[in-house]
Amino acid sequence: MYSYDDAGLFDVEAGLSPDFDTLWSDRCQDAITSLQRRIASGELGFASLPERDPIDLITWAEGRRAEGWTDQIVIGIGGSSLGTRAVLEAMGPAWKAAIRTHFAENLDPVTLHAILEQVDLQKTLLVVVTKSGSTIETMSQLWILYDALVRVVGREQADRQVIAITDPQKGSLRALAQERDWESFDVPPNVGGRFSVLSAVSLVPLALAGYDIDGLLGGARRCLDGGEDAWMGLARIAAQHVALGDQGYGQLVMMAYADRLNALVDWFRQLWAESLGKARDRRGARVHTGITPIKAIGAIDQHSQVQLYMEGPNDKQILFVETRSHSTDLTIPLSPSLPASLSHLQGRSVAEILQAEAQGTRAALARAGRPTACWRLESTGAASVGGFLTAWMVITALAGELLDIDAFDQPGVELGKKIAHGLLGHPEHGALADETGAVPMSDTAGAWTARR
Questions:
Q1: For the chain: N or C, fewer Cβ within 10 A?
Q2: 417 is catalytic
Q3: Which domains are delineated in the chain?
Q4: Has 357 been annotated as catalytic?
């Protein structure tokens, strides 16, 4: 499914030491034992998701597609949408899917209006995803889209076109689903949003779109088929990134050399940042730890970011992500009119040129003393993508164990949410908003006028 080349982490002057494995093996084993214990106890549910048989979900999705729906709007943000988008784009092309998928993620009125202009609401499903049921961006857009749907098809029919994916027992969305008899799926209570890509959160919209979710889960299972050796291999990768962070390489660039991998990097960025950026360790000591993830796309960012990586501060570890096989390819034709300086490109395929650019960039970075590694997928098919997702969820969780922090909470995002609610008039958070000195939204027009 994939291969991993870490030679570039050791071959540079300030990279990992030759005795890295000896120094870190015990810590890796301790991290594995701790994480496996949490999984076995039922505290963490993400690792067992691939074991579920998807046949009922596949059958259900086939039945819904047979009803003639042309589009689905996935309403969600963060872990409720990034995984779905990542798989759709990687395994795509999404525009060829059995049901076209649109994402109502960020609260942008222009984007939301554009979605409404693109779809026929009579033939569109609303798939709303929020575990808590109170995500402000998601519930705001749900209400706008649901209202638009009711205006077109009526309340009774609209309720048949909404699918809710949320907590099995609690939250505003669960209450709405029960009240209005919306079809619904559960997000397991022990699975957090950024670790939920192999749950109903993504599998439901992927199945509706006609994607191979059985193959996706199969690839996820295969990732850990090697038993303890597989776990140790992933722990070693986690330890490499943590060790480099300790050595001053506090930024991790994931540079994907395929447009189809673009959204996978977005998914990884949330997973890594939200899991590992923590103020305190498990003992409560203030640590402010974390390795900042940076997104780059090859070859595009050779023309924007690589100058910084080559000659700027040597504080970045750079992970190339490539695919051995593209679903299609094109060849530069033989032509006497091609300039002599480009004649060596005749007969070369686009994939071949892209691969040469990746190799050239990595070699140049190595010469500049920058630590690099390469993760190479066999393809962007279901099994390879499923393996990538599982591998990086496990690597991230193990990195949390090595850093002695909780990789499964996100206390740092809650304060901003509460202040925003207070600014919008929520009675429980108004005082908190007042403490910040922020201006309530009802007063913003005057505030802007006063500042001219």
A1: C
A2: yes
A3: 2-36+219-403 (3.40.50.10490), 46-211 (3.40.50.10490)
A4: no
